[in-house]
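Predict structure. Chain length: 395.
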Amino acid sequence: MNDTVLAETLQDWSQEVEVPHDLAHRVLARRQARRRRLVVPAVTGLATAAVVVAALVVGGTVGPVRTHDGPPASGGLGDLHADTTHNPPQEVVVAGDVALSAIVTYARVAAPTDGWQTLQRRYAVANPTTGRYEPRSWTYAAVAPGLATAAMLDGPLPSSQVGFVDLATGKVTRWVQLDHPVASLAWSPDGSTVLATAYDGDPDLEKPEGKDSFRTGDAKRTGFVLIDVAAGTAAFHSVASADPFGGGRADFGWTLDGDGVRSPSAPPEEKYLDLQGRPVTGADDGAYNTNLYLDAAQFSLSSPDGRFTITRASGLPTAITDNQTGTVHRQPALQVLAWADDEHVVTLAGCSKPCKGTSEFRNGLVLMKYDGTDPVRLTGPRKGLDDWAFELTPR
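Prediction complete.
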């Protein structure tokens, strides 16, 4: 079989079959540049004494990707690493500039107040040295760009101190004490500042009042705290509660440019605030709005080279616009989450056979090209949107 026939055959297979879990295991060389073109070499694996060769066709490149048993070698993660064997993943999932930095599962537990419940988060956070997710007992966490540090809250929410953890060693490197207790954390796009939302009580309290019906607790948002990570200082800015007639969680998020914050469920004139907590009038939605799905502004809507933009299209499938030609490309996905490189995106998509579609009930992280072609599964399918949650972080 000549090289041309082999390449064409492998490309056909990649579109017809569900990709086995170990096909996209690892690129041998550590990434040399943050925004270079993502090249996925081919995979060679052994099955029942026969050599099975499959292909991942990404960016027009076909080549072998080699499988490796055990965790990634220390010293860094490769360009592409999927874990579809374990659900949730146990080995760190990577696609170009993006890493799945933390996995969160949820449980309702009894609160001290009789008849009330609160949300308990269970974290498994990436260890960049071992290449595996490690369980943490934190009650809230956010991983910094670069995957070296996490900010966390420990103990009942809201908390009056924020801890900063070296993810390679698991050790707390600093505690920052706060005058106003907080219950959420979010890193700025440049990784210099943590935005924490302040509350006067536990914002996750709920009381069952019938089948699938809950009464929200009375805890109200009081403002936000900006923590200068290098200096270890914190500044509180008072903001009126998002809902003066009720309570519950209403966390602030960063704007895309990192120059302001965004308030959910607020009237338009109060949706965007500057870093002093003052409303920003006439805000440009493109610059101020956070990611379409994630409340994380570390990821731009534009591709690294500026050619493509994730389009705010209504309905499914999703859309990406070519800024040079005006062409709108569609993807078989529920959400486009982040740019892996200039031409590839990490999406939330259906993970039935084959790996495409928009099923809400069997969805996972899928790498694909801007035009929706060449899908590569990064995780196994979740059972609905709330099976386990994911945190994506720039590398």
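Summary: The helical segments are 3-16, 285-288.
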